[in-house]
UniProtKB/TrEMBL annotation:
The keyword Protein biosynthesis does not apply. Gene3D superfamilies: P-loop containing nucleotide triphosphate hydrolases. Coiled coil: none annotated. Pfam families: NTPase_1. It comes from the Bacteria. GO terms for molecular function: ATP binding; ribonucleoside triphosphate phosphatase activity. It comes from Alkalibaculum bacchi. Keywords: ATP-binding, Hydrolase, Nucleotide-binding. This is Nucleoside-triphosphatase.
Amino acid sequence: MYNLFLTGKIGIGKSTLLKRALKELNVSLGGYTTERVFEGYFRKYIIKSLYDNNTTYTILKVDSRDNSKEHFIDSFEKGALSILDKSLKERNLIVLDELGSAENDMSLFTDKVFKLLDSKKIVFGVLKENDCDFLNAIMAREDVIVITITEDNRDYIIEDIINILKSWQKQLEV
């Protein structure tokens, strides 16, 4: 199993490094990235499919006036699952940007993540720095490499990340 995750403080550059690394690889991509969109008082967090580059699902909406949150569980249990199912069948590298404690009680989604981790596909993602059963179970796996991104290493760690992913890619091509 080939599973690599980046973790670190909010805003440290985990997703930025993930996207930079993906640009350096010549591999079919699946999974999703997460993006933040501002609409008036609201911050919407959407997942964008890398399987087809068109499909998006809103997963969270935050009202900046009172910090209230609305989670869209169907976006995970239907939308994200559909992306991940197709990716598992037809892509070589599956991106999970980003996993956090919100997914802890979404068993359909978390079961799919563990199925991906058990597969022979390369899984590359971001883990929020949260303490929950779901994230702890991922980090405790022997077949998972977790790299903590810090202010001290974020400017040079990209080469190590790319080297790991390229070495796995070569192993899978044999």
